[in-house]
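Handout, section B. The chain below has 320 residues.
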Amino acid sequence: MPVTDITTDPENLTMTLVADAAAPVSRLWEAFTDPRQLERFWGPPGWPATFTAFDLRPGGRVDYRMTSPKGERSAGSWEVLNVDAGRSFEVLDSFVGNDGEKLEGFPSMRMVFSFEATAEGSRLTNTTYFASLEALEQVVAMGAIEGSRLAMNQLDAVLQDLRDYAQGKGTRTELLSDQHVRITRLIEGSRELVWRAHHEPELLKKWLLGPDGWQLVACEVGDTYRYVWQQGDDESTRFGFEGSTVLSEPMWRAVTTEQMIGMPGPATLKDLQLYEEDGATLLTLLIEYPDKETRDMILATGMTDGMEASYARLEAVVAG
């Protein structure tokens, strides 16, 4: 977890984030100045960023948008003020609309990103300067502190080689909040094959099985889906889930609802994201539960172990 401190200073109208990384300054600088790497952590989990323009030089402009699991978008733009290569850069960050123009009622903020070496690696200090106390309070009320922490805490997966970061660790479950859980698993194989294995019935039936002895006896996919499992030949053990597609960006991201068949109540939201590096794919599944009680009940069923059994099969299917 790289974030060590986030503080606000109402007197000086600043918010400062400090993050330490076990990587040299040059590697940390690269992560912040390569848009494809920056996309992997600039938005918090569930709101990944896409950079559509990236001219990081004085007078240049950087445009980005973040997309929620339900397709909502929040866009921003940097006016690049100064760049000291390898050490710091300074931008004016603004909220913008679909036309790229600044949104009325939202503040613009001067942001300075500074990079320095430490005994353990490197440190980022990101200081945001506000024009007024009202602007500072508005951004904090929008969730900037927790959002920044969650976003920057994704840096570890970017700074390390993907296999070094994830291989051999199996399926990992992280509690992000009372409602949110993040599942990660490295799959040896291309992103295209992992995507297909999540969307083609003949492949799903080979790996989406859970513990040994269970089989997927019904598998319907499309804008809506329905999965039914059964233990051995015992039809009385049948249970299943159904849902619909909320957002689909093929080969990268799929957001679906999920609800147990025949059970009333609010649905769970599942946000699948795939990232490929050197022939391996990092599968990230962000799950939003209706409440903490539901989250804890599901986790107590041994969900992580069941998912690991399935993902191990998925890896074999992809390899085959």
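Note. The chain has a mean pLDDT of 94. Compare this with the example in section A.
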